[in-house]
Amino acid sequence: MKEVALAVEMKEIVKVYPNGVVANRGVDFSVEEGEIHALVGENGAGKTTLMKILFGMEQPTSGQIKIFGKDVRIHSPHDAITLGIGMVHQHFMLVPSLTVAENVILGIEPRRGWSIDREKARKMVEEASEKFGLPIPPDEVVRDLPVGIKQRVEIVKALIRGAKILILDEPTAVLTPQETEELFESLRNLTEKGVTIIFISHKLKEVKAISHRLTILRDGRHMGTFVTDEITEEEISKRMVGREVELVIERPEPKPGEVVLRVEELGYVRDDGVRMLNGVSFSLRSGEILGVAGVEGNGQRELVEILTGLRSGATGSVKLHGEEILGLDAYGIRRRSVSHIPEDRVEFGVALKAPIWENVVSDRYWKPPFGGKIRIFPKVMKAFTAKAIEEFSIKADNPDTPVMMLSGGNMQKVVVAREFTSNAKLLIADQPTRGIDVGSTEFVRKKLIEARDSGLAILLVSADLQEILQLSDRIVVMYKGEIVGYFPQNRGLTEEELGYYMLGVKRHEPSRLKEAIVA
Amino acid sequence: MRRFSAYEWVRTAVTIGIALALGYLVLVFTVDDPNGAFKWFLWGPLSRMRRIVELIDYTIPLIFAGLAVSIVFQAEIFNIGAEGQLFMGAVGATFAALYFPQIPVIHVILVAAFAMLVGGAWASIPAYMKAKWNASELVSSLMMNYVAFFLGLYFINYHMRDLKAGYLVSYKFPETAWLPRILKRYNLHAGVFIAVGFVFLVWFFLYRTRFGYEIRMMGFNKNFAMFSGIKVNNVVLYAQIVSGMVAGLAGAVELMGLYKRFVWQVSPGYGFDGIIVALLARNNPLLVLPAAFLVGYFRTGAYVMSRMTGIAPEIVTTLQAVIILLITAEAFLEFWKRRKIIREAMKAEGGDVQ
What we know:
The complex is a heterodimer.
Chain A: E1 6-16, E2 22-32, E3 36-40, H1 47-54, E4 62-67, E5 70-72, H2 77-82, E6 85-88, H3 100-105, E7 111-112, E8 115-116, H4 118-131, H5 147-160, E9 165-169, H6 177-192, E10 196-201, H7 204-210, E11 213-218, E12 221-227, H8 233-241, E13 259-269, E14 275-285, E15 289-293, H9 300-307, E16 315-320, E17 323-324, H10 330-334, E18 338-341, H11 345-349, H12 356-360, H13 378-391, H14 408-420, E19 426-430, H15 438-453, E20 457-461, H16 465-471, E21 474-479, E22 482-487, H17 495-502, H18 510-514
Parallel strand pairs in A: 3-10, 3-11, 6-9, 9-10, 15-20, 15-21, 18-19, 19-20
Antiparallel strand pairs in A: 1-2, 1-4, 4-5, 7-8, 11-12, 13-14, 13-16, 16-17, 21-22
Helix pairs in contact in A: 14-15
Chain B: H1 6-30, H2 34-43, H3 49-74, H4 82-99, H5 106-133, H6 137-159, H7 191-208, H8 210-220, H9 222-227, H10 232-259, H11 270-280, H12 285-309, H13 315-328, H14 334-348
Helix pairs in contact in B: 1-2, 1-13, 2-12, 3-7, 3-8, 3-10, 3-11, 3-12, 4-5, 4-6, 4-10, 4-11, 5-6, 5-10, 7-8, 7-10, 7-12, 8-10, 11-12, 11-13, 12-13
């Protein structure tokens, strides 16, 4: 075997989080110099944890790390950077109000006397940008840049600090297919300049397209390292999930009923004066799923929060069964039979320290049989939860288990169990399968279809195009707070085509967009 | 209900141990016979029947105060105005005792009810400012304690003062506003039953009513509560008002049971001790009972020691400070918990990692 220098060598890494979750169970992971190495695995398989350990953000419970052949202990990201490791996170770590150049040189500013040498800074950034083949506009304010460029800024930021090993955490999650292509081009360029790249992903097509070798994690364990060309997608996915995944979800023809939700000319201006929603109009009937596609941050969050009463100050009209509900708070909207699966389950969806049963009844503790005018009935609540745990196959000992002790997927199932058992007329599902394992994802999607078929009206907001295409009966695409595309059915529609609308390259005629309101 | 885990027990026990050790150390450095003094402190409260009664009497207001603080703390509202609410409750009780119709039994109930009303009203001021303008209840409730103190003394000293008493107290309550004694020879009053009853009442309120559920969910995660359709601004209001009512009752019970008139010229400090009780009890009403007893025991021990040896009873403040510091220091003994978690997690792994 040919001797290749190893950039990273991690041995027997074990990580137990303070809440008892075991994220890594003795993982071996090594990366050769100058390769693009994909780290694949389901959400919750321990990929991000392993990389956080490498970048010094988490301390391993046990195990050794070698960087370029030298034993190291990495206590902080600062240590990691000194060792030549850079990381681009899923959520960008940029200051939105500063320019590109200012962001890149933050903390390593060239000085002239007491002040920053702006000319030099600008030149540094331009040189780096040129050297690595990553064009970025040094004087633009970061806030106004498209996601793809922001990501490039992050990469340059890492490289200018001397990164020889670059970790990219799910870099394509927020990109359109077109932007993804450009990113890959840049990454290939970088390896030619001697940069080693670790690419975290669970999208197999991308992994096949970009990586030289790949390592598979499942449930915190190492499931093998392979040369990418010598392993098929099927083989990878089998090792990732441990069984054949049923990627096709049975979706019978929808039988839409009467209009449940009618949104007209919805507008919203954020506190800082940025217009987040503009003239958003659509309607939703019972027994159908309307998908809202779009790159994150194009007004979807605001839309959902306004519809569910968590955000006030919008203009326009939102009618639920003909009743104007714009301006009601969450209390009022919940009591009008609207369910909501929130985008951020830890922030909104659950009370971590509370037991499962208290989480499952949080929207109905006040009504029979769970509670009366004054009392609540924990026995009834627990019995109901025990049934829900079974029906939604939540992995938990009993209803008294604190939600904190559950995995992400099971936490989401607690949320789903609540929102699907509330006898709602309308369900607003915001990224319902984000960050959960394949098994749970499949489960949640099947439940969504099931609920649709029993007459629920579902608004599905998702950045996952596969999910949108798989589940939606009709699709609208949001771009910069507006609906720019409307597809009355998803047959023959591809992710690429949707991508053009998400990027604002293509746009439907106003007359076609009006069709999103069906009578 | 949140389980009081082995970890919490150990943490509490170690905390109390350290506090006692520190108290002892202070004695070693300050008095000639630290062992003798410490013995009085440790066993004094149990050395005479009279002192046991004193201990129980002292525990009663601490139970109420601990319950009051637990209610707001469960909602993650840091209203530390129990002191002022209790004081105002006592002033209200004095007014009701002196001027309300003197019908046996009914009078006691009216006095208690009026004290709760005043305590609740007093608590509603920072509560309203929090709900309406998001004013920090920590600051406003603390400030309100001073207002309560001086306003209360004004009412007592200028309108209800007994000039014949020779010192600054209110008129003596009519007998219809006395709580009955339950021991002939000792001053043990029926307030102890009311206090224990309220332990269960507050427990029921927090764990068996929708209001308690709302309070607790808001305490766990305010966004979650809002998202679930709980009107959090209402919860902010009534959690503090109910808490203020319990604190107000403490003032009434204390006066009707123990002193039979308004006697305080300095704020009695029960409200602040209630914070320690709630911390020790982890805001669980059922655990408020032993926690109040423990804090009461320290206090009584310090008084007995002071009477027997002349050492200032304020030494107990040192102990309490240590307890507050260690209980609220989240990281204290965290390593113990973490090691246990790792061991547990690894055990569950079935030994495929060492």
